[in-house]
Amino acid sequence: MTAETTAAHEHTPDARELADLELLLSGAFHPLTGFMGPADAHAVTGHGTLADGTPWPAPVTLALPEDHPAAPGDRVTLRDPEGAALAALTVTERRDGLAAGPVEALGAAEHGPFARLRRTPEEVRKELAGRPALAVTMRGPLDDLEEIRAVARELDAVVLLLPLVFGEDGPAVVRAALRARDLLPEGTLVAAVPLAPREETAVDLELRERVAEAYGAAEHLAGPEPVTIPGPPHRRGLVVFFTGLSGSGKSTVARGLRDALLERGSRTVTYLDGDVVRRLLSAGLSFSRQDRDLNIRRIGFVAAEVARHGGLAICAPIAPYAATRAEVRAMVEAVGGDFLLVHVATPLEECERRDRKGLYARARAGLIPEFTGVSDPYEEPDDADLVIDTTGVSVEDAVGRVLDPLVRGGWVR
Ligand SMILES: Nc1ncnc2c1ncn2[C@@H]1O[C@H](COP(=O)(O)OS(=O)(=O)O)[C@@H](OP(=O)(O)O)[C@H]1O
Ligand SMILES: Nc1ncnc2c1ncn2[C@@H]1O[C@H](COP(=O)(O)OP(=O)(O)O)[C@@H](O)[C@H]1O
């Protein structure tokens, strides 16, 4: 095998797929031993069984980009986001953007918190040693411990708390399980299970039931759905993301907004200007589609980290591709932050007339290849929360048009 093919046969699944992978490897998804192909996924969605008739409630699939070279018969190393090899997937089928096949563990899963509490079904069943168990799957705090005590007494069962840890709320759910354990009968067990929620409640419940069975449960109770009350807007993370052509006014308005916010003094601000990012965070990247996307993902990553801690980040890159902007929105919303997309929609003619840095003239002369708006695309947003054309508008007014909705929406006091 050449170095090239080895490198090609690698893949980092997304968070949801990694969670499913861990359950496939631990046996919590018994009898599944690998990712499904389209036929099984459709059968499961249509009538709750695999194509061969085995009952199973939900699709468990792995998306692999169409341009990934892995073919049936190949082994793909699946890695966690930190690069550790988790499993080998032996591809049996590639269709409809999915890669199907059995998976085999390569190393212990170390990504994510509470690795110590992520016990496998086998370990838990061993500890139960044949005693009946009442499994309680939880996505939030339990509200009726008396019911659990009563059912456990009736069945003479060991209580097995299964906090379902996925996403931002994972640690809080584990803490809720550890607190509940102290209030439940002695011998209550806790095993954290990385089960990503399924959209349909009935499917989600059935899957929880199957996982509980794999852990040796004789009976399963589903804990209540968590009530999430978002904090007030002025304490929530916020990302104000400017997009637009070079010279449209992104940096000028973004800087004005930063200054106005600092003057008010009610929030701290992180400002990620396009040019500055390119000198530091994205030094060395070109303006190819691939590098622009990487640049925007890096900006999104930093902005989402700021938002995760309740901060306010202002970003002002060109960000010409809609799909990549949508990725950043999703990254920010996934950590509970709000995302405001501001399209600085100054027309190309006006940007070119300003030509502050002389770049358009050079691009027209063919001296800068792939120049946005001249020889490279700009996909106009259709999901902008705010659109500003700065033609004939003062900088002060343009800044006001962004600041006003922030104040009205309660993000800034
Ligand atoms: N080929 C090409 N196309 C567009 N822009 C170019 C190019 N080459 C250099 N520049 C300068 O780089 C700035 C844009 O960088 P960004 O990081 O914002 O671009 S992107 O979001 O990654 O597409 C942009 O800055 P702004 O004028 O502030 O937008 C330009 O000054
Ligand atoms: N209302 C306005 N808002 C922002 N910029 C404006 C406005 N009116 C004129 N300009 C000028 O347009 C240019 C915009 O450049 P810049 O902010 O660097 O754009 P970008 O960051 O999008 O490349 C600046 O020279 C700025 O003074």
UniProtKB/TrEMBL annotation:
GO terms for molecular function: adenylylsulfate kinase activity; ATP binding; sulfate adenylyltransferase (ATP) activity. Gene3D superfamilies: P-loop containing nucleotide triphosphate hydrolases, Sulfate adenylyltransferase. The keyword Cytoplasm does not apply. It is an enzyme of class 2 (transferase). The keyword Transport does not apply. Pathway: Sulfur metabolism; hydrogen sulfide biosynthesis; sulfite from sulfate: step 2/3. It catalyses: adenosine 5'-phosphosulfate + ATP = 3'-phosphoadenylyl sulfate + ADP + H(+). Its EC number is 2.7.1.25. One of its GO terms (cellular component) is cytoplasm. GO terms for biological process: hydrogen sulfide biosynthetic process; sulfate assimilation via adenylyl sulfate reduction; sulfate assimilation, phosphoadenylyl sulfate reduction by phosphoadenylyl-sulfate reductase (thioredoxin). SUPFAM superfamilies: P-loop containing nucleoside triphosphate hydrolases, PUA domain-like. ATP binds at residues 244-251. Keywords: ATP-binding, Kinase, Nucleotide-binding, Nucleotidyltransferase, Phosphoprotein, Transferase. Residues 236-389 form the APS kinase domain. It comes from the Bacteria. Residues 12-93 form the ATP-sulfurylase PUA-like domain. It holds the Pfam family APS_kinase. InterPro entries: APS, APS_kinase_dom, ATP-Sase_PUA-like_dom, P-loop_NTPase, PUA-like_sf, Sulf_AdTrans/APS_kinase. Belongs to the APS kinase family. Catalyzes the synthesis of activated sulfate. HAMAP family: Adenylyl_sulf_kinase. This is Adenylyl-sulfate kinase. The lineage of its organism: Bacteria, Bacillati, Actinomycetota, Actinomycetes, Streptosporangiales.
